[in-house]
Write a structure and sequence with these properties.
The chain is mainly β. The protein has 6 helices and 24 strands. The strands form 6 sheets. Strands 7, 9, 11, 12, 14, 15, 16 and 17 form an 8-stranded mixed β-sheet that branches. Helix 3 crosses helix 4 and helix 5 packs across helix 6.
């Protein structure tokens, strides 16, 4: 979206005050001609604004105003401070009025040295017709905010238009500061008439001289706690394993987040929302295929742990969830928990079926005893796992060579003792 600039060509304003029983009203008659070129996708569009003669009656006791609500900034030991200032409207007739665009000037001169505006969020959730309001900071003047295509028909009293993020430097001293608004700010209101007219809202109609107090204290963080932890294993990159593998199962692709509850020395409590906790995750030491496999099941659950000295409940590590993996014996393509001549026969049949674009593995799965937690996986997933176990040479296909290796492995097994190393035997056979 492009920036909006307003060039005033002519303007005369007559203000008449009429004394009546409470509430007193002020009538503002404005005759104005405005040229409002605005740029979208590098295309100039002429504004339909014409000469207007509009009368606006204002009730001083119920006039429309910006509603400015800042959060309280807390000075932290190590980080700069972010102050959120919500900008809303109060006493706005959302049923009969809306404004299409505005320039909002922000005065940061009373803030600590080094304070900056880091961003503006458009409150698109309040746009009922999906017009998609744009709220941007002027790149040439970071203290002017442009609101474009704002349809406030869906606004109720005190709804938030957008949020300003003001960053206060770590070196800021404790004290009371303020962000001011005004000094050239202007909202252009569209009244529902035929034809539509657009008029600037004067200071008699909207009060832009408000100040948002920003209080910075010397409070220190006394406690941090993770609350509302959530974990997802949807992106897990690796979930098939051989039963002899002794390394920990892989958690790459598992993500976690949570809200951080922060308690301060002055008794205040604040929250950091949806903090990424993925780097703090690990799996328990028991999550090793060689420890998990019992010769009866193919599906196993691994515990996901979270550990961080920054949070007392997780200083020694604690479980936040679990995920499933498939573990079986290498060469066990028929899923019966053993590697035998029958597996070589199935490998040859699968290879033959592949020559004609088919597969017998789905039928193998249907007849297999899959064990506990098998409902976590579909038959197609188990067929893919059977291929993983049968593809002993890692060629991504079931070949006659796989059948040969399975027969050789089975023969060697007949002479293996209780400490026979399956992994070493496979490495010797395949290289």
């Amino acid at each position: 979206a492009g920036n909006v600039s307003v060039n005033k060509s002519t303007a005369t304003t007559t203000v008449t005050t009429t004394t009546t029983p409470e509430p007193t009203t002020t009538t503002v008659t404005t005759t104005t001609q405005y040229e409002v070129p605005f740029v979208t996708d590098n295309t100039n569009v002429d504004s339909p604004i014409k000469d207007t003669d509009t009368t606006v009656t204002v009730d001083p006791a119920n006039k429309t105003e910006f509603d400015i609500k800042p959060s309280q900034a807390e000075k932290t030991p190590t980080n700069s401070v972010n102050v959120d200032i919500t900008v809303g409207l109060k006493n706005f007739d959302s049923k009969n009025e809306f404004f299409n665009y505005a320039d909002l000037v922000i005065d940061m001169s009373n803030m600590p040295e080094g304070s900056i505006i880091t961003g503006v969020d458009a409150a698109s959730a309040i746009i009922a017709d999906g017009s998609g309001a744009k709220v941007v900071i002027d790149p040439e003047n970071p203290y002017i905010v442009h609101l474009m295509n704002v349809n406030t028909q869906a606004l109720s009293e005190n709804d938030i238009l957008f949020t300003l993020h003001v960053q206060v430097p770590e070196t800021a001293k404790a004290g009371e500061y303020s962000v001011s608004f005004g000094n050239g700010s202007v909202i252009y209101r569209i009244t529902k008439e035929d034809p539509l007219t657009i008029t600037p809202v004067s200071s008699d109609n909207i009060d832009l001289s408000v100040k948002a107090p920003v209080v910075i204290t010397d409070a220190k963080i006394t406690d941090k706690e993770i609350v509302n932890v959530s974990m997802s294993s949807a992106g897990l990159e690796h979930s098939y394993y051989y039963s002899y593998q002794s390394s920990l199962v892989d958690i790459n692709g598992i993500i976690a987040s949570g809200d951080i509850k922060i308690t301060w020395s002055n008794g205040d409590v604040t929250y950091e929302k949806a903090v990424d906790l993925t780097e703090l995750l690990y799996v328990s030491d028991d999550a090793r295929p060689s420890k998990m496999y019992d010769g009866k099941n193919f599906v196993y659950l691994a515990d996901v742990m979270l550990k961080s000295e920054d949070y007392k409940d997780y200083a020694d590590g604690a479980k936040i969830g679990e995920f499933s993996v498939l573990i079986g014996q290498k060469g066990d393509i028929n899923l019966d928990h053993s590697v035998a001549t029958l597996d070589a026969t199935v490998a040859l049949k699968e290879n033959a079926a592949k020559q004609f674009g088919g597969s017998i593995l789905s039928d193998i799965v249907k007849n297999a005893q899959l064990g506990e937690n098998s409902e976590f996986y579909t038959n197609d997933m188990f067929a893919d796992f059977a291929q993983f176990l049968g593809d002993v040479n890692g060629s991504k296909n079931i070949e006659t060579l796989d059948a040969t290796y399975i027969l050789k492995f089975n023969a060697a097994k007949q002479f293996g003792g209780p400490d026979w190393d399956q992994e070493a035997e496979w490495n010797k056979l395949i290289g």
